[in-house]
Structure formats: structure tokens, C-alpha cells
Amino acid sequence: MSEQFDSSRPIYAQLVERLKARILAGTYQPGGHLDSVRDLAAAAGVNPNTMQRALAQLEAEGLVRTERTSGRFVTEDTDLIEQLRASAARNIAADFLEQMRSIGYTPQQAAELLRSWNETEGKQHE
Fold first, then answer.
1. At 95, is the secondary structure helix, strand, or coil?
2. Alpha-carbon distances, residue 58 vs 18, 43, 51 (angstroms)
3. What string of pLDDT tens digits covers the 126 residues of the chain?
4. Domains of the chain: which residue ranges?
5. pTM
6. Which of 27, 34, 53, 92 could form a disulfide with 72 if both were Cys (CB 3.0 to 4.6 A apart)?
7. Of 1.25.40.10, 1.10.10.10, 3.40.1080.10, 1.20.120.140, which CATH number belongs to 11-76?
8. CA 124 distance to own-chain centroid
9. 17 to each of 12, 85, 92, how far by Cα in Å?
């Protein structure tokens, strides 16, 4: 199953974001083994060189490590993962609040909207 990419941004950068999001969400567990470059590339529908570049970036950021004979693994540094999760959450919240302010909502009104929506969604999934 190929992924959809935004043509205005480099594909490898989008792959970095998506793989990082999966690590932060726990889809790829700390210490977990990643599939081969070829398998990841095939699943995403990209050239293996593009996937290799994305993984190299994640390795430079400390989220992935390579063991010469065993392949690539997600970092076991749960503190790093949690710091990155918190940073991502702050960025998402800041973007959300900026958009809400642009339509006249205060942060308190936005919080109430989220609270109400979460209660409604929670009841639908019980």
C-alpha cells in the first residue's frame, strides 16, 4: 500500500515525519526492530534510496540505531521519545490555538470545545 505524499515537499522529509510519528505514538516500540530498507520502501511506495535517507535522518536525531549485522532498531531512550512527544504536542496545541484565535475563540473556549467534543466522542465509542 503506497502512501500519499505532498508534492511541494521532499518525500524523504515526509517519511521522516511519518516514521517519527509512529515512533512517538508507540507503533514502533522502543528497542523494536524495524523492517529492512527495501521492505519499508516497498510499503511506502518509494525508492529504497529515499527511505535510506529518511532513516539516516532519524538515526542522526537519535531515534533509530543501526546494528551492523542485525539491522535497525528504535532507540531505547524513552526519555528522548517522551521529550519529542511533549514537543510535538506543544506544537500541535500552539497551531490549534492559533487557528482558533483566528476565528475568534479564546483559549478557554477552545478548551471547552475540546472537552465537550471528547465527552461526545467518548460516548459514541463505549
1. helix
2. 11, 18, 11
3. 578 999 999 999 999 999 999 999 999 999 999 999 999 999 999 999 999 999 999 999 999 999 989 999 999 999 999 999 999 999 999 999 999 999 999 999 999 999 999 898 866 655
4. 11-76, 79-124
5. 0.81
6. 34
7. 1.10.10.10
8. 26
9. 9, 12, 14
